[in-house]
Structures are given as C-alpha cells and as structure tokens.
Amino acid sequence: xxxxxxxxxxxxxxxxxxxxxxxxxxxxxxxxxxxxxxxxxxxxxxxxxxxxxxxxxxxxxxxxxxxxxxxxxxxxxxxxxxxxxxxxxxxxxxxxxxxxxxxxxxxxxxxxxxxxxxxxxxxxxxxxxxxxxxxxxxxxxxxxxxxxxxxxxxxxxxxxxxxxxxxxxxxxxxxxxxxxxxxxxxxxxxxxxxxxxxxxxxxxxxxxxxxxxxxxxxxxxxxxxxxxxxxxxxxxxxxxxxxxxxxxxxxxxxxxxxxxxxxxxxxxxxxxxxxxxxxxxxxxxxxxxxxxxxxxxxxxxxxxxxxxxxxxxxxxxxxxxxxxxxxxxxxxxxxxxxxxxxx
Amino acid sequence: xxxxxxxxxxxxxxxxxxxxxxxxxxxxxxxxxxxxxxxxxxxxxxxxxxxxxxxxxxxxxxxxxxxxxxxxxxxxxxxxxxxxxxxxxxxxxxxxxxxxxxxxxxxxxxxxxxxxxxxxxxxxx
Lengths: 343, 125
What we know:
Oligomer: heterodimer
Helix content of chain A: 40-55%
Number of strands of chain B: 0
Strand content of chain B: under 5%
Shape of chain B: elongated
Order of helices and strands of chain B: HHHHH
Low-confidence stretches of chain A: none
Number of helices of chain B: 5
Structural class of chain B: mainly alpha
Largest sheet of chain B: none
Number of helices of chain A: 12
Number of domains of chain B: 1
Distance between the termini of chain B: 22 Å
CATH topology of the largest domain in chain A: Aminoglycoside 3'-phosphotransferase, Chain: A, domain 2
Number of domains of chain A: 2
Distance between the termini of chain A: 50 Å
Radius of gyration of chain B: 19 Å
Shape of chain A: globular
Largest interface: A-B, 42 and 48 residues
Helix content of chain B: over 70%
CATH class of the largest domain in chain A: Alpha Beta
C-alpha cells in the first residue's frame, strides 16, 4: 500500500468518531491510511488502516452517497450484518452506523472489518479461468458458493425479518417495475413485455427465507481457493429464496458482456450440480421453470438499477461515468431476457 | 437500440473525465483510474454502436413493416431506434395477449438483441 497517500482528515475524524461511539477504538486511535476503492455502484467503499496503541486495524467504510443508484436503506444493510454475526458465514463484524445525510462521506455510513481475500470479476478472462480451474480441480470455491447460499436460506426467517424487509414475489416485481417506470428515459418494448411475462409466471410460494438479493461470486472475496467473505447485502430481504439462484444463473453473471462468458453458473459451477447440491443441503427441490422466472426477475432488477443510474447521470446528479457505461450492458441483458422467455 | 443517453451526452461525459484527470496534480487513486478506464470503454462501445446504428434501424423497420400491417406506414416514418421502441411499446399495450403478431414481433426483437450485442463486440480499429 502506498505510504505517500494524503488522508482526508474530515473523513478520518468521522470514521474514528463512529468507532469510538461503540467502543471499537480508544481515544488515541489514529487513521494511518484511507482510500476510496474502485467499484461500488450504489455504495462507496473506503479502506482504512487504524493504529490504536499496539493494535493495527483494517476496516472498510460503506457509505451511501447522494446520487446512489439504489434507494436502499444503509441502516438495513448494517442491521443485516449485525444479524449475520452469530451465523457460520464469512461476514465482517460491524463497528457503528452514522445515519446523518450530512457527513464527510457524502451521506450515511457504517464501518466494518476488512476481511482477507481478493475480489473476482467474472467479466475478466483471467478471473473466469481461475474459477474454471477451481471447478476442474478441488471445487473449494464451488462448494463454498452453494454451501453458504444454503446456509443463508436456512437462517430463521422470523429473526431475519427483524433486520430485512419481507417482500413477496408480486411486491418484488411491483417494486422493480416502479423503479424502472420512474427512471426510464426511453421506452423499451423488450422490458415492457418481460414484466408481462413474469407476472404471468408467478410461482407457487415457498417458505420465506433471508434472500441476499445480489448473491454472486463478484460479491464474495476469495482466499486460498475458498470464499473468505460474503459482502454487499444492500438488496437483502425476506422472500422467495429461489430469487438468489435465478439471479446468479443469468448469463450476464457468467461473465457475458458483448461476448459469451463461462458456461458455468456464475462462472463457478455446473448448473445442474449446483441445483442438486443446493437441494441436498436445504432439503428443498428446485424447479428449473421457477428458477427461470426468477432469472427474468433478476434481470429486470438489474435493468431497473441501471436505468436509475442512467437517469441520475443524465440529470447531472453524478459525474460517475460508470453509470453512463451501463447503457452498453443493457443490450446483453435484453438478449438474456429474450432467451429466458423463449422468444 | 432502445438506449438512453445520446451520443453528445456520452461524449461530454468522456471529456469531463479526461479534464478531471488532467486537472489532478497528483497520482490517480483507484477510483479515478477506474473512471478513466470506463471512459475509454464508453468511447470504444459508442464507436461500435455508431458504426452499426444506421443499418440496424433500416433492418428492424424492414422486418417489422410486413408484420405490423396497417401500422406499417407509421413504423416506416420512425426516424430513430428510440421512436421504433416507443411505437412497439404502445402497440404491445393495445394488442390482445393472443394477437398472432406478438410472437412474430418477439422473434424480431430477439434477433435485434443478437445483432446489437454482436455489433457492440465489433469495435472498430
């Protein structure tokens, strides 16, 4: 890590105050490094190194900036991380939440431990090759990916509902269609027809569970061939757990952009193997037709989020050009939707 | 085809990122470097899209015309892919669910999506 880095003092003070308020650091603690990470569409993340006496702490600050692509509650995300602490899942401990909009992080923020591991980007060929090698080899990442998803879905739904909002199938569809309609700049007949299709394919309900909402290998960290962290819980809710599987089954999440990605589910595991292993772990069989419906819902969620980003960018509420770049992701998602609907 | 943000808006965005990088007197942070790389990617994809756009518009209007019947003339007048999208969305809204034109239009939209993705992959040198 570069040591020439200038530390943003207001941000450093705000994060120490947050941690001191919950007793995570002493009054003598000092921030020795603070830098915004690349990535993060709806949240901004910063890594911070803190020296507290003889102790050296590595933390991450999660902030919801103004002009975020997701109008999700950062407080809920914080509460979900708190909920997960006693579970046998690799999730970070949290160190306080600041709900104020007016902070040096340009909005509310919370602090959490920085877990070891590296992020995977399935749209990068070498990262897909690494995942393929895991699948062809000892399958540590593949096994963790399915095992942790099964564990998330087996958390007591009543307890989960104290942290995350319950949402039925139709409420989910209504929500994302509302976001899409509110933010769209142009009309898209493929998306309009896709909403009609998912409404006509409402699956029979199952017992609700904690749904991660954005479960994919890109939201995990990998270390020594295993998943070392599951992050980005901002879309979590209590609902139909099959959403997570449909969403991660999208070709887009296998690394497809303008050229095809991996044939593996989420570039990690064979589709059938994953479904069978998941059913084995949870005792819940998976109907491929229902998974297909949730793939369409997941694609529509992505479209709604990207459409929001395009609206925010077009109105000059952000200069983050990655939001404009998502315009070029939408044709591939449209293509995925056409395939899911058997057009 | 049915894409928000015009070419001029994207070019202004690319320029703004370049200007911000030029104005920074110190080494770029990760976030700023990712902005530059995204601007580079937008420029390349926009170039690919612009090369393919006129032929795509002619193709889809030609495919839809015979399927639409009495609305063929209206579609022929559509001057942009955005206008085609508007017309199709309105048509789907008014169309009975079992209208035999519906699967035909779906087939054309599927091929349109395939062609558009292929066009974006063909970035001009």
